[in-house]
Amino acid sequence: MILTLTPNPSLDRTYELPGLERGAVLRAAGDRVDPGGKGVNVSRAVAAAGGRTVAVVPLGGPEGALLARLLEEHGIEVAGVPVAESTRVNVALVEPDGTLTKVNAAGPQIERAAAEAMLEAVRARSADAEWIACCGSLPRGPGPEWYAEVVDRTHRGGGRIALDTSGAALTAALGRRPDVVKPNTVELSEAVGRPLATVGDAVKAAEDLRGRGARAVLASLGADGQLLLDETGTYFGTAAQVVARSDVGAGDASLAGFLAAGGRGPAALAAAVANGTAAVQLPGSAMPGPADLDPALVTTTTDIPVNRALTHPTR
């Protein structure tokens, strides 16, 4: 079982548009609403693959009630924590070439009692969890050290934790030795305070995060592939080019595949790349199932192309 903690979940409404024209009245070619938030997406991917997952989420207002119902319809066990303000609604606008424009709401204020109740829900439901995945930005209320407390409590309980966050929350948690951190290129650059122009730059940045406490780093380089640095070595994974429909939740699908495959070594990296590649070919934030995966598209290697320029270098 994989337990997820999403402190700022959402309802994600996606509109597919023939084109995005500012100031115009646009007619959507398709639309859908999905339960959202990075940890929620990890749970959805685990459930789509036939695995058991529990999602710890704050729930507020009719939006929170709808989120819980949608999660249950996906076969996800919901450990909901009531909050006073409504769960947020995010909007994604997708154009035919895959260009994505997102509008993310701030989300509810989480009071101290609700933040503690989420920590207690994680403790109460994690006894048989192979992994605890804590994902996404923090909502208004908890300080950046809150994820560090989650890491501490997980380790005191004998569990393994994967952390997918950024900024001060990531920095504060590194010294508590999370088992896996999963930054993208921008988050990795921000964490080390320098630009990344090549795959080699990304490797050095991931090494820095390990030096600051992360036991493993699974770094998404977007279309350029993924890196894994752990105690078994350094690996680089890529996939053959596919037609992208939406990249919403692709990184979360990757993390789910990685954890479900054991969360260690090149086989887990290959699963991460396969799941992320499958996810970008699906509409909205739909998560891939076994029939969507094509492992033949994936290559992993220890021969890292350190001089390869990143498609989207950071500044």
TrEMBL record:
Source organism phylogeny: Bacteria, Bacillati, Actinomycetota, Actinomycetes, Kitasatosporales
Listed name of the protein: 1-phosphofructokinase
Family: Belongs to the carbohydrate kinase PfkB family.
Gene Ontology MF annotations: 1-phosphofructokinase activity
The keyword Cell membrane is annotated on this UniProt entry: no
Keywords: ATP-binding, Kinase, Nucleotide-binding, Transferase
Domain Carbohydrate kinase PfkB intervals: 19-286
Enzyme class at the top of the EC tree: transferase
